[in-house]
Structures are given as structure tokens and as C-alpha cells.
């Protein structure tokens, strides 16, 4: 069942770097930064994959994914866990492709967009809620 991403967390994600974790069929983890993480709606986050062959291959074999987004200046963050769908055609892909053309640095066309149905959300900030499931 999808978790609801609160308005506060949706606002937090905007413009931040995310770290995406996947695993290959042999159980070897892969973590890679993504500068395109964004909230699509209250149950879904997305990112454009521009370079990560391992991430794509891992998600083709196992859709389970974790994405952690942090604000290093404030030492706050959230982790999202769920299942990813790889999209390489259609309206969502086209929208992300157009959005990337507006980036301040020229970027390649995305290989795909990962659309993640968020099943769990965890607080990654220091303090009494550190590591607690919040969604």
C-alpha cells in the first residue's frame, strides 16, 4: 500500500540531491546520486536516469528501491522505500525530458524515468524521531 507524502516532506524534496539504492541479483548493493528527484504526487516520487546503467539493470531485475534525500546544511532528511517502474516513453517521460532542457547545465536526454510508488517513509534527521517510520 502506498504511503502518503505530506506537504511538508513534498516541499523538503524540492531542489535537493537524492541518493538511490538498488541491489543486483547477486545481492550487491548500488548507491548513486540523483539530482532530478522530485515528488510527482502524494504517493509517488520520480527521477530521471541520465547515466546509471547499474541502477537500470538492477531495477529491471528487482523493482525495490530506497531513495534518501537530505539537506546537509540543516542535517535533515527523509528516506523513501518502494517499487520503481521504468518509463522510457509517454507523457511523463516527455515532460521530464522537456524539464531537463531547462537545466542551467546542458544534460543528456534521460534514458528513462523511474516512477516510484512510495510504500514507506522514514525520518533521517537527528533527534527523537531519527530512523522512525513516518509514512
From TrEMBL:
Name of the protein: Pyridoxamine 5-phosphate oxidase-related FMN-binding protein
One protein family per Pfam: PNPOx_N
Transmembrane segments: none
Position of the signal peptide: none
Residue ranges of every copy of the Pyridoxamine 5'-phosphate oxidase N-terminal domain listed in the record: 6-124
Protein species of origin: Desulfococcus multivorans DSM 2059
Amino acid at each position: 500500500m502506498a504511503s502518503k507524502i505530506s506537504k511538508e516532506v513534498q516541499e523538503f524534496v524540492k531542489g535537493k540531491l537524492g541518493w538511490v539504492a538498488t541491489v543486483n541479483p547477486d545481492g550487491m548493493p548500488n548507491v548513486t546520486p540523483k539530482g532530478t528527484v522530485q515528488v510527482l504526487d502524494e504517493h509517488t516520487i520520480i527521477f530521471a536516469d541520465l547515466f546509471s546503467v547499474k541502477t537500470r539493470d538492477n531495477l529491471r531485475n528487482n523493482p525495490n528501491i530506497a531513495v534518501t534525500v537530505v539537506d546537509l546544511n540543516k542535517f535533515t532528511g527523509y528516506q523513501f522505500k518502494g517499487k520503481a517502474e521504468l518509463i522510457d516513453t509517454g507523457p511523463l517521460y516527455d515532460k521530464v525530458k522537456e524539464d531537463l532542457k531547462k537545466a542551467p547545465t546542458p544534460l543528456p536526454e534521460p534514458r528513462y524515468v523511474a516512477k516510484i510508488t512510495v510504500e514507506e517513509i522514514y525520518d533521517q534527521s537527528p533527534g527523537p524521531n531519527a530512523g522512525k517510520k513516518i509514512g
